[in-house]
Amino acid sequence: MIVQLTGTLLSVSPSLVVLDVNGVGYELGVSANTAASLPQAGEAGVTVLTRMVVREDAMELYGFSSREERALFDRLRAISGIGAKLALSVLSTFTPQQLASVVASEDVTRMTQVAGLGKKKAGRMLVELSDVFAKDAELRNLVGLSGLSDTNVSGGLSAHTSLDDEVTEALLAMGFTSQEAALALEGRQEAGALSIEKAMSYALRRLGSGN
Hints:
Keywords: ATP-binding, Cytoplasm, DNA damage, DNA recombination, DNA repair, DNA-binding, Helicase, Hydrolase, Nucleotide-binding
Family: Belongs to the RuvA family.
Low-confidence stretches: 147-154
Strand order of the largest sheet: 3-2-1-4-5
Radius of gyration: 21 Å
Number of strands: 5
Structural class: alpha+beta
Protein name: Holliday junction branch migration complex subunit RuvA
CATH superfamily of the largest domain: 5' to 3' exonuclease, C-terminal subdomain
Region (Domain III): 161-211
Region (Flexible linker): 148-160
Number of helices: 11
Order of helices and strands: EEEHEEHHHHHHHHHH
Shape: elongated
Number of domains: 3
């Protein structure tokens, strides 16, 4: 596996760079943040961290300016429905530290700034990334969250559970059944209903529409 290349930078664009290594030109897909951090074309001795992605119809190389960005690229690609292109789009929109902040604050609105990411998918991505940060101490260290414990980082996840409990209790008091409450709350995280008020409104809309 190719994990790093050092050579002369032949060209740089917001999404692609070409690196000449001993006469062989390597085209690397990059994020806009990595592209902006690289020197101008023609510079020699440029080192780029890499990750090779092998598909049935292609072998592609992606380049990164930091270990943090490469680690997040790997974690993003592990989420169902997120390929290399969307992962790079996320990393073009946020630095690793900014992404960690967005995940910690469960900011669906900021996450939808990523090109090609709708509100529903952004909500699901936040939930999955929250779980990733909670379980991966090495990743937390890389993005500067080393001072937080697993419990601190996963607080958002436990908050989802307690929020569901509170909304369910309120719906039961209104005369709905437990089954109706559970069905009404399905998909609320993906829809961005991450506060009591929004979750309650979401559930009541679903109950009113019969969905």
